[in-house]
Amino acid sequence: MKFIAAKCGDEKSIQLAISQNRSLNFSRAADLYKEQKHIPAAESFFRFYKTAPNTDPDLPVALYNSAVSYKLADRPKTAISLFKEFTANPQKNFRESPYYLDAMRLTAASYQASFDYDNAKKTYLELYATTKTAKAKGIKAPDPLPGEQPRTLDQIGLDALFNAALASELNRDFKGAIDLYTQYGRVEPDRRKQDRALWSIAGIYRQSGDVNSMTETFDRWRAKYGNDAGNEDDYVQSFYDAAAVRKKKGQTAQAKLAGQQTIDAWKKRGSIKGGRGAKMAGEWQLAQAEEYFTSTWDPIAVKTAAKTVKEAEAISKNLLAQKTKVEDKYLALDPYGVAELSMAAKVRYGDIQYSWAQKVADAPLPVPVAKSGNDDVIAAYETKRDANLKKALDEAKSQWVEVYETAKKNGISNQWSRKAQENLGREFPSEFTVLRQELVEGTEAP
User: Pick from 71, 79, 207, 397: most CB atoms within 10 A?
Assistant: First the structure.
């Protein structure tokens, strides 16, 4: 530095010394970047960019590295401004730098992270077009950032087109997004990425509530990609989403049909336990069980006294058969391997035992017993009945306790853990605390 300041030597020697000094400053900035000291690195690179002559070959790299460092330091607005400065520079060394493409990509990504979807889409589409120009000029693809995989110019361009579609979708420009996803699906050679483009279109129709277009798109997706490995859960979801939209629209019969198709889809694609598909299919399996419990099992009551012993046995046998049917509805939840569904099955199994006991207890005495006029006969009948009822109540208690203790041990709180505690508190208040739900809603305005 003293050599330069004192202007020792000829002009050529001085310029060489200045160049060497700049190179040293650039190397120091690069070292700061490698040490992940992002703010100091950004400042050092930017200082180099501002002080180096326009002919310095490291000028584009310095500005790019400064922008990237600010981005990694979570300074998106500063990063955007520097990326924009890079892409706005008309000089050849900037426009034909491989970092020009990445500056555009990261500008678009920064716009998207800032929820500026219009500019994100515009920049992504410009990047898509620019990759074609770069390829024609023989410009190489930029080196990947830390943690990223290297990509070809074609891959950068195709990803930009997909991201432009995604930005349109996030901006709720559904028509524009569908057009771009469709365009992307036509030019993208990768099967999985084609799959995701069509899946995204179906998702847009779901968001907009266009159930007919959504169903048609899901039909096409299933025909082309539904049997691909890794699509098991999405295959189930394609029916689940249809059921959800129809349910929201009040199309109850069609929603139930799609719900059954959701269950069938999970079975068709291997009945994978515990996954996303299992949760969606199991939700409909539970809904079916709950509907049966409420509409068929709950209303059952023995209101007429049996006239004969044989008739009493037939009534008892029929009630047990009905009990088995509703139990089976909940036992069908076990194969899904979903904790909440298993809890539901156990709580309801206990409820069924309890309600069966109530139905038996509420039934009128058989006519032969009631008219026997013999207190011992009546007492014997009631003692035997009550012993069977106690077994049912004990079984109900054991199911509820299992759910309650499992939930407590694992820190789980859901409608089934709460219902188990409510049941135990109601029937066994000396052993269990009655659960009182916290008031979470304010008073309603008149």
Answer: 79
